[in-house]
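SEQUENCE-TO-STRUCTURE ENTRY
===========================
What this section holds: a protein sequence and its matching fold, both as plain text.
Question of interest: how does this chain fold, as expressed in C-alpha coordinates?
***
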Amino acid sequence: MEKHLLLTISNDQEASYNLRFIRHFFEELCDVRLTLFYVVPRAPEWMLDARDLAPTRQAVAHMDKIKDSSGKRALEHARRWIVESGCRPDKVETKVVYSKHGTVREISKEAHVGLYDACVLGRRGVSWFGELIEDSVSHRILWGEIDFPVWICRRPETGLNRDILLCVDDTDSSMRMADHVGFMLEGMRRHRVTMFHVRTPDDATDPDTVFDQARSLMVEAGMDADLIGQEVAEARNPVTAILNKGKAGNYTAVATGRAAGAPGTMERLFPGSVSTGLLRRIDDFALWISK
Protein backbone atom coordinates (compact mmCIF):
# COMPACT_ATOMS: atom_id res chain seq x y z
CA MET A 1 0.00 0.00 0.00
CA GLU A 2 1.31 3.44 -0.93
CA LYS A 3 2.40 5.58 2.03
CA HIS A 4 1.66 9.31 2.15
CA LEU A 5 4.01 11.50 4.19
CA LEU A 6 3.77 15.17 5.15
CA LEU A 7 7.20 16.87 5.13
CA THR A 8 7.59 20.34 6.60
CA ILE A 9 9.81 22.71 4.62
CA SER A 10 11.58 25.88 5.79
CA ASN A 11 13.68 28.59 4.15
CA ASP A 12 16.86 27.04 5.54
CA GLN A 13 17.75 24.65 2.75
CA GLU A 14 20.58 23.13 4.75
CA ALA A 15 18.07 22.16 7.45
CA SER A 16 15.97 19.88 5.22
CA TYR A 17 17.02 16.86 7.20
CA ASN A 18 13.60 15.26 6.75
CA LEU A 19 14.06 15.15 2.97
CA ARG A 20 17.47 13.56 3.28
CA PHE A 21 16.21 11.06 5.85
CA ILE A 22 13.43 9.96 3.49
CA ARG A 23 15.95 9.45 0.68
CA HIS A 24 18.14 7.41 3.04
CA PHE A 25 15.32 5.32 4.47
CA PHE A 26 13.31 4.24 1.43
CA GLU A 27 14.91 2.02 -1.18
CA GLU A 28 12.44 3.19 -3.83
CA LEU A 29 11.25 6.76 -3.34
CA CYS A 30 8.42 6.08 -5.76
CA ASP A 31 6.93 3.76 -3.14
CA VAL A 32 5.83 6.82 -1.16
CA ARG A 33 3.81 9.95 -1.92
CA LEU A 34 5.08 13.21 -0.45
CA THR A 35 3.42 16.50 0.37
CA LEU A 36 5.93 19.29 0.97
CA PHE A 37 4.36 21.78 3.36
CA TYR A 38 5.40 25.38 3.98
CA VAL A 39 3.84 27.60 6.65
CA VAL A 40 4.14 31.34 6.06
CA PRO A 41 5.16 32.57 9.53
CA ARG A 42 3.08 35.27 11.15
CA ALA A 43 5.03 38.48 11.62
CA PRO A 44 4.43 40.52 14.81
CA GLU A 45 3.19 43.51 12.84
CA TRP A 46 0.41 41.63 11.06
CA MET A 47 -3.03 42.93 11.99
CA LEU A 48 -5.67 40.28 12.68
CA ASP A 49 -9.42 40.62 12.87
CA ALA A 50 -10.34 40.14 16.54
CA ARG A 51 -13.51 38.24 15.62
CA ASP A 52 -11.93 35.28 13.88
CA LEU A 53 -8.19 36.00 13.86
CA ALA A 54 -8.37 36.43 10.09
CA PRO A 55 -5.59 38.66 8.72
CA THR A 56 -6.44 42.15 7.54
CA ARG A 57 -6.05 43.22 3.90
CA GLN A 58 -2.59 44.64 4.63
CA ALA A 59 -1.54 41.44 6.36
CA VAL A 60 -2.76 39.33 3.43
CA ALA A 61 -0.70 41.44 1.03
CA HIS A 62 2.38 40.83 3.19
CA MET A 63 1.64 37.10 3.35
CA ASP A 64 1.27 36.88 -0.42
CA LYS A 65 4.63 38.54 -0.83
CA ILE A 66 6.28 35.98 1.42
CA LYS A 67 4.38 33.11 -0.22
CA ASP A 68 5.43 34.17 -3.71
CA SER A 69 9.06 34.73 -2.73
CA SER A 70 10.76 32.76 0.01
CA GLY A 71 8.02 30.15 0.46
CA LYS A 72 7.78 29.37 -3.23
CA ARG A 73 11.54 29.19 -3.63
CA ALA A 74 11.92 26.88 -0.64
CA LEU A 75 9.28 24.49 -1.96
CA GLU A 76 10.64 24.53 -5.51
CA HIS A 77 14.14 23.77 -4.23
CA ALA A 78 12.89 20.94 -2.03
CA ARG A 79 10.75 19.45 -4.80
CA ARG A 80 13.55 19.61 -7.34
CA TRP A 81 15.97 17.96 -4.90
CA ILE A 82 13.71 15.06 -4.01
CA VAL A 83 12.76 14.45 -7.66
CA GLU A 84 16.43 14.42 -8.66
CA SER A 85 16.95 11.89 -5.85
CA GLY A 86 14.62 9.45 -7.54
CA CYS A 87 11.04 10.39 -6.68
CA ARG A 88 8.62 10.69 -9.60
CA PRO A 89 7.31 14.26 -10.10
CA ASP A 90 3.70 13.12 -9.92
CA LYS A 91 4.38 11.72 -6.43
CA VAL A 92 5.37 15.11 -4.99
CA GLU A 93 2.86 17.81 -4.08
CA THR A 94 3.61 21.23 -2.62
CA LYS A 95 1.36 23.25 -0.34
CA VAL A 96 1.56 26.67 1.34
CA VAL A 97 -0.64 27.97 4.17
CA TYR A 98 -0.68 31.15 6.24
CA SER A 99 -0.05 30.85 9.96
CA LYS A 100 -3.04 31.89 12.01
CA HIS A 101 -2.47 30.04 15.25
CA GLY A 102 1.25 29.25 15.06
CA THR A 103 3.36 27.02 12.85
CA VAL A 104 2.97 23.81 14.84
CA ARG A 105 -0.80 24.21 14.99
CA GLU A 106 -0.93 24.65 11.20
CA ILE A 107 1.13 21.49 10.73
CA SER A 108 -1.16 19.60 13.11
CA LYS A 109 -4.24 20.82 11.27
CA GLU A 110 -2.86 19.79 7.87
CA ALA A 111 -1.88 16.36 9.19
CA HIS A 112 -5.44 15.80 10.42
CA VAL A 113 -7.12 17.03 7.24
CA GLY A 114 -4.76 15.18 4.89
CA LEU A 115 -4.86 11.88 6.79
CA TYR A 116 -1.13 11.40 6.28
CA ASP A 117 0.60 8.25 7.47
CA ALA A 118 3.24 10.35 9.27
CA CYS A 119 4.39 13.93 9.66
CA VAL A 120 8.15 14.21 9.06
CA LEU A 121 9.95 17.16 10.66
CA GLY A 122 13.42 18.48 9.89
CA ARG A 123 15.71 20.47 12.17
CA ARG A 124 13.44 23.51 12.26
CA GLY A 125 10.54 21.31 13.30
CA VAL A 126 12.61 19.94 16.14
CA SER A 127 13.13 23.46 17.46
CA TRP A 128 9.38 24.11 17.25
CA PHE A 129 8.65 21.06 19.35
CA GLY A 130 11.47 21.96 21.71
CA GLU A 131 9.82 25.30 22.33
CA LEU A 132 6.55 23.49 22.87
CA ILE A 133 8.08 21.45 25.67
CA GLU A 134 9.11 24.62 27.50
CA ASP A 135 5.48 25.81 27.52
CA SER A 136 3.58 23.32 29.67
CA VAL A 137 0.13 24.64 28.74
CA SER A 138 0.78 24.53 24.99
CA HIS A 139 2.44 21.16 25.40
CA ARG A 140 -0.65 19.73 27.04
CA ILE A 141 -3.11 21.25 24.58
CA LEU A 142 -1.20 20.52 21.40
CA TRP A 143 -0.10 16.99 22.21
CA GLY A 144 -3.71 16.25 22.94
CA GLU A 145 -4.48 17.11 19.31
CA ILE A 146 -1.60 15.20 17.72
CA ASP A 147 -2.95 11.70 17.18
CA PHE A 148 -0.78 10.89 14.16
CA PRO A 149 2.81 9.55 14.04
CA VAL A 150 5.55 12.20 14.02
CA TRP A 151 9.06 11.56 12.71
CA ILE A 152 11.69 13.97 14.04
CA CYS A 153 14.94 14.06 12.04
CA ARG A 154 17.85 15.75 13.78
CA ARG A 155 20.48 14.61 11.31
CA PRO A 156 20.24 14.07 7.55
CA GLU A 157 21.34 10.45 7.20
CA THR A 158 21.31 8.68 10.54
CA GLY A 159 22.95 5.31 11.10
CA LEU A 160 24.87 3.21 8.64
CA ASN A 161 22.07 0.67 8.65
CA ARG A 162 18.38 1.31 8.22
CA ASP A 163 17.09 -0.63 11.21
CA ILE A 164 14.48 0.48 13.73
CA LEU A 165 14.65 0.23 17.52
CA LEU A 166 11.03 -0.18 18.64
CA CYS A 167 10.53 0.61 22.32
CA VAL A 168 7.62 -1.44 23.66
CA ASP A 169 5.65 -1.61 26.88
CA ASP A 170 2.06 -2.51 27.76
CA THR A 171 0.51 0.85 26.78
CA ASP A 172 -1.89 1.36 23.90
CA SER A 173 0.38 4.01 22.37
CA SER A 174 3.23 1.53 22.26
CA MET A 175 1.09 -0.97 20.36
CA ARG A 176 -0.06 1.73 17.95
CA MET A 177 3.56 2.50 17.20
CA ALA A 178 4.23 -1.20 16.58
CA ASP A 179 1.37 -1.22 14.09
CA HIS A 180 2.76 1.94 12.45
CA VAL A 181 6.24 0.44 12.13
CA GLY A 182 4.83 -2.73 10.58
CA PHE A 183 2.75 -0.71 8.13
CA MET A 184 5.65 1.53 7.08
CA LEU A 185 7.93 -1.50 6.55
CA GLU A 186 5.31 -3.55 4.71
CA GLY A 187 7.03 -5.71 2.10
CA MET A 188 10.45 -4.11 2.72
CA ARG A 189 13.35 -6.48 3.34
CA ARG A 190 16.07 -3.86 3.89
CA HIS A 191 14.93 -3.01 7.44
CA ARG A 192 15.10 -5.03 10.64
CA VAL A 193 13.26 -4.15 13.85
CA THR A 194 14.50 -4.80 17.37
CA MET A 195 11.73 -4.68 19.96
CA PHE A 196 13.27 -3.21 23.09
CA HIS A 197 11.78 -3.27 26.59
CA VAL A 198 13.46 -1.51 29.49
CA ARG A 199 12.65 -3.19 32.79
CA THR A 200 12.88 -0.74 35.69
CA PRO A 201 12.90 -1.85 39.35
CA ASP A 202 9.16 -1.19 39.74
CA ASP A 203 8.15 -2.64 36.35
CA ALA A 204 5.75 -5.59 36.56
CA THR A 205 5.30 -5.94 32.79
CA ASP A 206 5.76 -9.38 31.26
CA PRO A 207 8.12 -8.65 28.31
CA ASP A 208 7.18 -11.83 26.42
CA THR A 209 3.52 -10.86 26.39
CA VAL A 210 4.36 -7.38 25.14
CA PHE A 211 6.74 -8.73 22.49
CA ASP A 212 4.18 -11.25 21.24
CA GLN A 213 1.51 -8.57 20.90
CA ALA A 214 3.80 -6.10 19.14
CA ARG A 215 5.14 -8.76 16.79
CA SER A 216 1.62 -9.87 15.85
CA LEU A 217 0.65 -6.29 15.03
CA MET A 218 3.71 -5.77 12.83
CA VAL A 219 3.22 -9.02 10.96
CA GLU A 220 -0.47 -8.31 10.49
CA ALA A 221 0.46 -4.88 9.10
CA GLY A 222 2.64 -6.52 6.46
CA MET A 223 6.14 -6.93 7.91
CA ASP A 224 8.05 -10.22 7.60
CA ALA A 225 8.35 -11.99 10.96
CA ASP A 226 11.94 -13.07 10.38
CA LEU A 227 13.04 -9.42 10.40
CA ILE A 228 11.82 -8.85 13.96
CA GLY A 229 14.04 -9.40 17.01
CA GLN A 230 13.66 -8.62 20.71
CA GLU A 231 15.76 -7.58 23.70
CA VAL A 232 15.19 -6.73 27.37
CA ALA A 233 17.41 -4.36 29.36
CA GLU A 234 17.50 -3.76 33.11
CA ALA A 235 17.85 -0.06 33.96
CA ARG A 236 16.61 2.65 36.31
CA ASN A 237 16.49 5.28 33.59
CA PRO A 238 14.64 4.12 30.44
CA VAL A 239 15.69 7.17 28.40
CA THR A 240 19.39 6.58 29.00
CA ALA A 241 19.01 2.85 28.27
CA ILE A 242 17.22 3.56 24.98
CA LEU A 243 19.80 6.15 23.91
CA ASN A 244 22.68 3.80 24.72
CA LYS A 245 21.06 0.94 22.83
CA GLY A 246 20.30 3.17 19.85
CA LYS A 247 23.89 4.36 19.61
CA ALA A 248 25.40 0.91 20.16
CA GLY A 249 23.21 -0.64 17.46
CA ASN A 250 23.66 2.28 15.08
CA TYR A 251 19.92 2.39 14.46
CA THR A 252 18.51 4.83 11.96
CA ALA A 253 15.41 5.53 14.08
CA VAL A 254 13.99 4.94 17.54
CA ALA A 255 10.22 4.42 17.65
CA THR A 256 8.14 4.84 20.79
CA GLY A 257 4.63 5.56 22.01
CA ARG A 258 4.15 9.05 23.39
CA ALA A 259 2.61 8.07 26.69
CA ALA A 260 4.48 6.88 29.78
CA GLY A 261 2.94 5.95 33.09
CA ALA A 262 -0.66 5.17 33.91
CA PRO A 263 -3.49 6.87 31.97
CA GLY A 264 -4.45 10.23 33.36
CA THR A 265 -1.17 10.91 35.10
CA MET A 266 0.97 13.98 34.44
CA GLU A 267 3.65 11.64 33.09
CA ARG A 268 1.68 11.36 29.88
CA LEU A 269 2.11 15.04 29.10
CA PHE A 270 5.10 16.51 30.85
CA PRO A 271 8.89 16.07 31.03
CA GLY A 272 8.90 12.80 32.96
CA SER A 273 7.68 10.86 29.92
CA VAL A 274 10.10 8.71 27.96
CA SER A 275 9.14 10.29 24.62
CA THR A 276 9.77 13.80 25.96
CA GLY A 277 13.08 12.74 27.47
CA LEU A 278 14.15 11.27 24.15
CA LEU A 279 13.04 14.38 22.27
CA ARG A 280 15.28 16.51 24.46
CA ARG A 281 18.36 14.30 24.24
CA ILE A 282 18.20 12.38 20.98
CA ASP A 283 20.75 13.37 18.34
CA ASP A 284 22.23 10.33 16.59
CA PHE A 285 19.05 8.98 14.99
CA ALA A 286 15.51 9.93 14.05
CA LEU A 287 12.73 9.70 16.62
CA TRP A 288 9.34 8.30 15.71
CA ILE A 289 6.55 9.16 18.18
CA SER A 290 2.94 8.00 18.17
CA LYS A 291 0.18 8.90 20.61
The chain has two domains: 3-152, 164-290. Confidence is low (pLDDT under 50) at residues 260-272. The longest strand covers residues 32-40.
